[in-house]
Amino acid sequence: MYLTEEVYSDSSKRNKIKTYRQIWLFKRESNNTAWLYIESSENLLLSYDPDGTSTERYKINAQGDVLYNNVTINNTKTIFFNSM
């Protein structure tokens, strides 16, 4: 699945500033688990580095619980999260 956002300088939409894209992908790991991947061409949430890329990975079970996830920013810094 793809999400595309077009950003313009004003409501006339004559001057496009940038296009942001996000890709979502589900991948089955086993009968009980799957991975959800979210890749962003730019990271709109980081005001200090709006042009940085990010990749999020979520391992989920059949009940929808997140078992493991991490976020990688600009292909260099990875933040790991573990569910308790």
Plain-language structure description:
- By secondary structure, the chain is mainly β.
- Helix content is 0%, strand content 60%.
- It has no helices and six strands.
- The protein has strands spanning 2-8, 16-28, 33-40, 54-61, 66-73, 77-82.
- The chain has a six-stranded antiparallel beta sheet with strand order 1-2-3-4-5-6, with no helix packed on it.
- The protein is elongated, with a radius of gyration of 16 Å.
- It starts with a strand and ends with a strand.
- The mean pLDDT is 80.
H/E topology pattern: EEEEEE
Strand content: over 45%
Uncertain residue segments: none
Could you give the count of β-strands? Answer: 6
- Biggest pleated sheet: 6 strands, antiparallel
Question: What's the average pLDDT?
Answer: 80
Q: Give the distance, in angstroms, between the N- and C-terminal Cα atoms.
A: 30 Å
Structural class: mainly beta
- Count of separate DSSP helical elements: 0
Helical percent range? under 10%
Molecular shape:
elongated
Query: Largest sheet, order of strands side by side?
Result: 1-2-3-4-5-6
